[in-house]
Design brief:
With 180 residues, the protein is α+β, with helices and mostly antiparallel strands. It contains six helices and eight strands; from the N terminus they run ββαααβββαβαββα. A hairpin with a 4-residue loop joins β3 and β4.
């Protein structure tokens, strides 16, 4: 995948193997992992290398597009944002995480708005969905600011570290994104 997306402060680019140690450091932070659906803690050695290879393969086959969130001026890797695509339904699920030191500065919202635009304009999606644990209102705010609307709460929908968690689901359709 050679796609790079730009925002006023960020560059969203494909992950490279050289990013693995930073991914392990940032994604391995307890506060990041505890409210992110698929991040383990502690983050195992070698897992970031395997994950980067897996995400490159997904992009090559059109199943998902995962971008490193890079602060443009310093070229600092801050986190990850992705669209995992279900091609048969022209639908994708947005997912993201940021290292804790980058929280509260609008970076996730800026990246989310850009990837939603990419999903509708480039991938020609019909629908984008996202989910956040109810105990992570900041993530719900990112989805809302990116244009997704709250669609419901799924009680005890997932298990994170042996605890069942409620998920808030959000979505936006192509006709909502491009109103006539």
């Amino acid at each position: 995948m050679s796609i790079t997306l730009q925002t006023p402060r960020l560059q969203l680019r494909p992950f490279e193997q050289r990013d693995a140690s930073t991914v392990q450091k940032l994604a391995g932070q307890y506060e990041v992992a505890r409210t992110t659906l698929s991040l383990p803690h502690p983050y195992p050695d070698g897992a970031a290398d395997a994950w980067i290879a897996f995400r490159k393969d997904a992009a090559q086959h059109g199943h998902g597009f995962t971008f490193a969130i890079i602060e443009d001026k310093q070229q600092q890797l801050m986190g990850c944002i992705s669209l995992n695509v279900t091609a048969a339904h022209q639908r994708a699920e947005i997912g993201y995480w940021l290292g804790q030191e980058f929280w509260g500065q609008g970076y996730a919202t800026e990246a989310a708005k850009r990837i939603v635009r990419f999903g509708f304009e480039v991938l020609n999606l019909n629908r984008i969905i996202g989910a956040a644990m109810t105990r992570n209102p900041a993530s719900s705010a990112v989805l809302t600011k990116a244009g997704l609307k709250h669609e419901g709460t799924f009680k005890q929908h997932i298990r994170k570290w042996d605890q069942f968690e409620d998920l808030e689901y959000f979505g936006i359709t192509r006709t909502e994104y491009f109103p006539k």
